[in-house]
Amino acid sequence: MTVMGVWQLDVYQSKTAAATAKRATEPPVPLQSLFSVDEGLPSKAVGRRVTVSGTWGPAADQVFIADRLNGDQKGFWVVTPLMVDSAGAVMVVRGWVASVDSPTAQPPTGSVQLDGSVIASEAADSSGEAAKGRVLSSLRIPTIVHLVNYRLYDGFVVQTSPAATGLAAVQPPAPPTDHAGLRNVAYAFQWWIFAAFTLWMWARMVLDAHRSRDDEDPADDQPATALEPTGTVSA
């Protein structure tokens, strides 16, 4: 039963890996076809390749995400708003730079059409850094939305092509695994519960047998003896 549970868990892991890989390799689609600026980021959109067209937003709205590695070197992700339409903008991770003062980190202008991958906000809060400037410790829409005066899509696009001039490319983080195959997880726990129940029943039977021997009356095992007279009666 334990082996069967492990096998079902392996099936689940293979299903989620396959589903995640498939989603990341599907052909790119327009960002707006996955969700709108008024919607939260759906799980099906995370990791999807998308195309985005628009005009680069105000230079003052660009932000930097600190402590990001490019090989062994720490630097910053350069994140710039792209005005998709009159409805709002999407924040684009254009690339990596060693210093926020680098000339290559200057915000671009004009119109652009690019491809990229959708990623979700990070969990860590960086609202404290937002109050001090444009260098943040985490990539998070709830923080950045307070730094601009227009609506933002609830997700980021990591630019993959065309490559941003002067910036090192950022590898999109691996998307989280899908929930495909959760039935196999349930089966795995079911097998392990059966195994635990079997062990419990065996222990209970052994304990009951031991108690039965202890409860037996020792007097029942002694042979019966005749009563002997305690005195004599005179005639």
UniProtKB/TrEMBL annotation:
Major site of localization recorded for this protein: membrane
InterPro entries: Surf1/Shy1, Surf1/Surf4
Annotated localization: Cell membrane; Membrane
Xref: Pfam families: SURF1
Keywords assigned by UniProt, alphabetized: Cell membrane, Membrane, Transmembrane, Transmembrane helix
Membrane topology type: Multi-pass membrane protein
Gene Ontology CC: one annotated term: plasma membrane
Chain intervals for the UniProt region annotation (Disordered): 213-235
Family: Belongs to the SURF1 family.
Protein name: SURF1-like protein
